[in-house]
Amino acid sequence: xxxxxxxxxxxxxxxxxxxxxxxxxxxxxxxxxxxxxxxxxxxxxxxxxxxxxxxxxxxxxxxxxxxxxxxxxxxxxxxxxxxxxxxxxxxxxxxxxxxxxxxxxxxxxxxxxxxxxxxxxxxxxxxxxxxxxxxxxxxxxxxxxxxxxxxxxxxxxxxxxxxxxxxxxxxxxxxxxxxxxxxxxxxxxxxxxxxxxxxxxxxxxxxxxxxxxxxxxxxxxxxxxxxxxxxxxxxxxxxxxxxxxxxxxx
Length: 250
Hints:
Layout: E1 9-19, E2 25-35, E3 39-43, H1 50-56, E4 65-70, E5 73-74, H2 82-86, E6 89-92, H3 104-114, H4 120-133, H5 149-161, E7 167-171, H6 179-194, E8 198-202, H7 206-212, E9 215-220, E10 223-228, H8 230-235, H9 240-249
Parallel strand pairs: 3-8, 3-9, 6-7, 7-8
Antiparallel strand pairs: 1-2, 1-4, 4-5, 9-10
């Protein structure tokens, strides 16, 4: 696999079905396309399949049927090295998953050193730059236990960026944070959007989705019901279920 694909579409998911052994039909014929440089927000009630769909895009969840092409590579082709593909797809979770025995700087440096085998001096310089980019240059030698939740999540974002991904996936990145810490994380994501990073964000922050996203996907009961502009979704929603959802959360 190479990273030389420069087609317009970063993600093309077609007819995605996901069944669990217990009979749960988690994803129902979900099809969506994300263009290079686009920011797509996924909204919907809890249990609607948002995070499941997001996790299929780097094969943390294996689909039952359908096709997913990421950066020109068919994820389920037998010749695809999924670990190599994942290096090009950054992921930020609800929980920060930082190594507690490593400083912020060491957490950001780890994957480029161990996975990409890049020179230590080069990685350290890049990691310091990324930590500064998320506003934590004065905290780079702190351990996670000495960082707030918002600061830990910003380190997690810097860690994902350290692999120089072409696509970033965010799975409700602010849901585990105290309300006053949400803004600092959303500001970092807004900065990435302004720089042209391709991002797919599962979020409950409706104002953020309206402000930052180029498109908004609304999911319900495993199905993708609406795929439209933020203005159409939030200002003039036509789908009855979307209207009901927004009436409760706005």
